[in-house]
Amino acid sequence: MTKQVKVLAFDVFGTVVDWHGSIASAVKKLNLAADPNEFASAWRAGYKPAMAQVRSGKLPWTKIDDLHRLILDDVLKQFNITTLSENQIRDLNLIWHRLNPWADTVEGLGRLKSKFTIVTLSNGNLGLLADMAKNAALPWDLILSAEVFRHYKPDPETYLGVAEIFDLSPEAVMLVAAHKDDLVSAKACGLQTAFIERPLEFGPHFTRDDLRQEDFTNYHAKDLNDLARQLGC
What we know:
It contains 11 helices and 8 strands. It is α/β, with parallel strands linked by helices. The protein has 2 domains: about 1-20 and about 100-230, HAD superfamily/HAD-like (Rossmann fold, 3-Layer(aba) Sandwich); about 20-100, Orthogonal Bundle (DNA polymerase, domain 1), CATH 1.10.150.240.
């Protein structure tokens, strides 16, 4: 089956980089009057509802940087934080451009790149993903984003768009993600799927109960090095 796979398309937030730990650390450094873990979780909680407004047409196409800022403004009000200047708020919003990779990420991606074309398939916008790649030394062959397709995952246009760009059939593309809803949607479009366990994605005080192996995934891996091993890299 792996002989058919030409392109590995990666979800990024949570799968490749540690959004929760990176944001919590930034909040802690700012000495905000909020629990860093709760702040990070609240910010991320607004992510899918904000995208849903774009997907439904309630909002026009809006890139993730701008959605993150809308959510951040609400989170600051939620935690009653009024001490930050506009420049500080703008810089905090850009933390998403500077998220840290998981410990296995760079090595694992390098191994997978030796055999496959590796690309992003993220809801993050292009500028964000480019900055992140530069900051975290992520060796992508190509950066693809919902911004390219003007559709957010899980719209089929995102998954099928990768295959179209490379002139491949959907089954020649494998989505690699730590989120099963993402994988279910990719599989429905004909892509192959690989689940990556990220037990700490939502922070040290959150226990994930969805790490079991599923029959809708072609591969199930502890991390990217484990996936590379399974794929013969």
